[in-house]
């Protein structure tokens, strides 16, 4: 299995970064404005990217200010059964965000495109949490 992994450092408290990643307000600003999310384990979050299928992610784990894990249940076939994990830690006024998108079956053009877009996602998260975008 293949994984995408990225890291970014954000000048914001870990609690603010966590909140951005689990709330409709945060995720609509950095990912897609068409969504239905709840910060609740077992809930199926929905993300609409104006494609033929709505992306649905089951919330597997929420450890406040430390870890978020989703499992893709509906989306592009290459995403189904993959996991998206955010690992958070704070030190000296910086929050480290490690993003992992795991369990890809193969490295394909779509995998590479998603890899690029996850980097952009982390950049938007940084700008949002550092109050550069709203």
From TrEMBL:
Residues 11-129 form the Activator of Hsp90 ATPase homologue 1/2-like C-terminal domain. It holds the Pfam family AHSA1. It comes from the Bacteria. InterPro entries: ASHA1/2-like_C, START-like_dom_sf. Belongs to the AHA1 family. This is Activator of Hsp90 ATPase homolog 1-like protein. It comes from Sinomicrobium oceani.
């Amino acid at each position: 299995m293949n994984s995408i992994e990225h890291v970014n450092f954000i000048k914001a408290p870990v609690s603010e970064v966590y909140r951005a990643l689990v709330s409709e307000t945060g995720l609509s600003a950095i990912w897609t404005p068409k969504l239905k999310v709840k910060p609740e384990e077992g809930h199926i979050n929905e993300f609409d990217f104006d494609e033929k299928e709505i992306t649905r992610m089951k919330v597997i784990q929420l450890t406040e200010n430390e870890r978020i894990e989703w499992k893709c249940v509906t989306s592009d076939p290459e995403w189904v059964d993959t996991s998206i994990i955010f690992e958070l830690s704070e030190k000296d006024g910086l929050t480290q965000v490690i993003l992992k998108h795991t369990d890809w079956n193969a490295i394909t053009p779509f995998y590479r495109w998603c890899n690029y877009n996850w980097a952009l996602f982390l950049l938007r998260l940084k700008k949002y949490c550092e109050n550069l975008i709203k």
